[in-house]
Amino acid sequence: MGKHEPSAALWQRSATDLAEAIRTREVSSEELVRSCLDRIAETNPRLNALVDVRPEEALAAARRADAAVAAGDELGPLHGIPVSIKINTDQKGYATSNGVAALADKEATDDAACVTALREAGAVPVGRSNSPGFSFRWFSTNELYGRTLNPWDADRTPGGSSGGSASSLAAGMTPIAQGNDIGGSIRFPAACCGVVGVRPTVGRVSDYGPPAFADTPGGPVELDFPPTVHYCAVQGPLARTVADARLALHAMSTPDVRMPQGVPAFPTPTRPAGQIAVTVVRGNADVKNHPAVDRALDAAAARLMDAGYVVEEVNQLSLLTEASRLWALLITEDIRLILPVVQQLGDEAIRTALEGHFGYAAEVWGERPSLETYINGWARRATLITRLQELLSRQRLLLTPACAELPFEQDADQAGPGRTRELFSAMWPMTAVPVLGFPAVTLPVSLEDGLPVGVQLIGGRFEEDLILDAAQAIEDRTTAIRTWDREA
User: Do the strands 277-281 and 310-314 form a parallel or antiparallel pair, or are they unpaired?
Assistant: First the structure.
């Protein structure tokens, strides 16, 4: 899926291919950026995936990249490659609005560490990708920038919260995008739009940024983020191919002990001597998979078997079911701390979505869980991490659905408690992983009724390359899933 096609326009080619082409002067970064800007001009007015594109700034950066090539400078792995940055991530000179109108002028004075890593790898930012208000929905609509569409079907969500990232990739606006994930926000949009999303191990990609402050009568006060932000949220890449996702992940990987979960260095990856086992986890007792989801799992499993993997199947894995339930406790109680701010500054859609979220959590954990319940939840999380690592360390990966449903209808989280309950049940593969901090990848496997259907691979901590190897094996046996192949 990532190999160069001679007749392909520059914007259609993979980042891996283009990085080599720039390095060998087959093409220039300026030519590539112009091609992507033309594609943005063609597709973004309909999709609204990128919300702050500054062409002259991007072209100036591309010319600097070309000058470095001409000078024989040492080049990074993404040298001259266009990328997008999400609107909830600090990028110097751009508003970190998070889709909130009251924050439209909150201009960042410096780059977040993940943006710095992309720049140091040579990437050229060309636009800001859209998200829901406060980046906390599985849909990408906000009062500041409006609605992002799924390029496959405007009536279906592009996913959230990195919906603009995934939509722009699927449409060919850039080959790589930055996103973040605390409840599926990289992996679910990737699945909805038919691209690849990587959620790294917590601590692999630095999430460090300038401290956040609140204005008070006595002066600015530094804000402390809740524990789930530090121990469940990650920054990571989305891309159109597995090889490009791997390239971007390695470029973004930044040991950083300033982070509470940061590490000074990553473990040296080693390839297992024997065959790798893949356990297919088909679902849980709370939800029945859409038939297309089961077909995608079957197809992915067959492709892994063809590649030499040992494939086994279980209907459920209680550890993941429990982890998903814990997400509803730990994330929800941490959100409760910022709920007054969301209610004051958020739009109607995010307020409605959070009302449904809290209603679902109350069904599982009670209206107001006690401090003892919350503390015990964190303790149980540690036990589940140990058990999952023990399972996966024996040369094993897990293969799960990306979601039990096809991409949701737009604004499904606004339809009332019954539908909200269905959404949370369907999203167990997305919510189980963040609370444990493990790495996972989603990738497309098939098209059903014109919609991409993806699967998820989960591996042991810091075993991203092992997961990506399996994802590559699936992709190598999958017909390319690209929106422009369907364009008239």
Answer: parallel
Contact 426, 191 (CB under 8 A): no
Q: Out of 28, 84, 161, 253, pick the active-site residue.
A: 161
Q: What is the pLDDT of residues 4-61, one digit of tens each?
A: 666 689 999 999 999 999 999 999 999 999 999 999 999 999 999 999 999 999 999 9
Model pTM above 0.85: yes
Cα separation, 433 vs 59, in Å, equals 39
Tokens, residue 232:
């469940």
- Has 324 been annotated as catalytic? no
pLDDT at 460: 96
pLDDT score of 266: 86
Interatomic CA distance for residues 381 and 236, integer angstroms? 23
Tell me, yes or no, if 318 is annotated catalytic.
no
Q: What is the CA radius of gyration of the chain?
A: 21
Contact indicator for 58, 79 with CB cutoff of 8 Å? no
Catalytically annotated residue among 14, 28, 84, 86: 86
CA dist 101 and 98 (Å) reads 9
Give the 3-state secondary structure of 285-299. Answer: CCECCCHHHHHHHHH
The one catalytic residue in 185, 324, 425, 446 is 185
Respond yes or no: is residue 161 known to be catalytic: yes
